[in-house]
Input
Amino acid sequence: MTRRGWDVPRIALALYPFGAGAMAVNVFFASLIGSWVGLPVLSTSWSIALGALIGLPATWAFAGHIRALMDEAEQKE
Output
């Protein structure tokens, strides 16, 4: 049986802006929590840059999960 639909790299590319944005928000909020123990709060620029970096593997993993769900759904047809 051949795979239908998008492959993992294409799904990851489509979802990357959302993954990077979510990671940027998470990094910023983590730095706010870190400020409770004396760590500096990250600027918006640093949060976006780190979010873009962390967003790559996170989005790739999520795309793999989505592809697995697509494969499972195709098997049930």
